[in-house]
Amino acid sequence: MWGWITLKISKYSGKADYSILDQIIIDGFANVTQFTSDKLRKTQSGVIQNYLLGVLVFLVVIIIVVNQI
Fold first, then answer.
1. How far is it, in rounded angstroms, from Cα 51 to Cα 23?
2. C-alpha distances in angstroms, 69 versus 55, 64, 66?
3. What is the pLDDT averaged over residues 34-61?
4. Residue 46 binned pLDDT confidence (cut-offs 50, 70, 90)
5. pTM for the whole thing?
6. Dihedral of alpha carbons 17, 18, 23, 29, sign
7. Whole-angstrom Cα distance, residue 59 to residue 9?
8. Which residue has the higher pLDDT, 48 or 15?
9. Which of the residues 17, 55, 60, 69 has the least number of beta carbons within 10 Å of its own beta carbon?
């Protein structure tokens, strides 16, 4: 009696595992990571002056925000 119930439950559990967990959650994180890395790759030029300018702009923004609080 319990054997067929277990088979039915495992069938639906396997479908939910593949379609929800694997396809949406796991692949979703991978897609977000890939998208983000594609966008951030353009900021990595290797020119140190650009990195320093970015840090300077970031510090100015932080100082302005802290002074407003």
1. 37
2. 21, 9, 5
3. 92
4. confident
5. 0.52
6. positive
7. 56
8. 48
9. 69
Higher-confidence residue of 8 and 29: namely: 29
In angstroms, the CA 21 to CA 27 distance is: 9
Name the residue with higher pLDDT: 61 or 69: 61
Rounded Cα distance between 23 and 16, Å, is 10
Three-class DSSP labels, the chain: CHHHHHHHHHHHHHHHHHHHHHHHHHHHHHHHHHHHHHHHHCCCCCCHHHHHHHHHHHHHHHHHHHHHC
